[in-house]
Design brief:
single chain; 83% helix; mainly alpha; A middle domain of Talin 1
Length: 343
Amino acid sequence: MARRILWGSLVLTPVAIVARFVFHLDETTLFVLAAVALVPLAWLIGEATEHAAEHTGPGVGGFLNASFGNAPELIIALFAVAGALPGVVRGSLTGSVVSNILLVLGAAMIAGGDGDVDARSLRWQLFAVFGAVAVLTIPSAFAWSGGSNERHSLFILSIPISAVLLFAYLAITWQNLRIHRAAERVEPAAHAWSLKRSLAVLATATAATAMVSEILVHSLDQFGKAVGLNEFFIAVVIVAIVGNAAEHGGAVVIARRGNTTLATEIAITSSMQVAVFVAPAVCLLSWIVGRGLPLSFRVIEIVTMAAAALFAAFVVADGKSRRWEGFLLVGVYGAVVISYLLA
């Protein structure tokens, strides 16, 4: 019954698009409609990823889910750059890294209960997140010394840093896929979709997610004013969670089915991709769609990203997923959200 409801709920995607571009409904209604429409899309991405993982194994499956799931994140960031909202972009990137590591990983552990995780792969990727945050501290520290975070000199400094991060992303991804290719030998189950069908559904669902996410982000500013939230909190919490709805829902659905290895791969791979790929890609592409975006993050953003990576590395070090560890991660995320609210 639940699956039928989710399949039927996919009709909310064209409804949200028509409501925005044809009927021009008020932004509060659009926010609620788009948020609800993202739920079945997130489920569909998780469904397609699990079928793809039947052919590729959990490591590559997690990479595919994170890659398709982060496409809306990149698109949303570029929309925000074009709309002259650099603080929203950096806040959403920070929130994406932190929420994937703490909230998504924690929720997946809670949903999946006791199970296995690929500690070697997760440690490697969490180390990459920590390294990326260390590199991003360079332009950020210059911004802390005084002056505007949007100085052109900071953007110029961010360009070579972005190039280094993108090179590191290619190297990390290649090494991680080699690890999984050598370790994973899988035979797809009889009920599994073909790999071609799985990838086609992933691509279609990602495109739809990007459109619906843009509608929701378009309505966020007015929604934030209505509920009295500042721009930073909206970006680092609400926009980040919305932009990662695919990973959030997909990881939890997959974990509930007992595949904690794939679910945890989705959470950590997505975080790594945002830190090492999405952030520098947005920086390098920002001059095309608007003013150049410096990678100059606030102190609280740098600290929380680094702390989340280190905390998660400690949790997954033993190669086991436990429900109480999931509650611990979600609790830490709640404390981080409160710190963002007070910042």
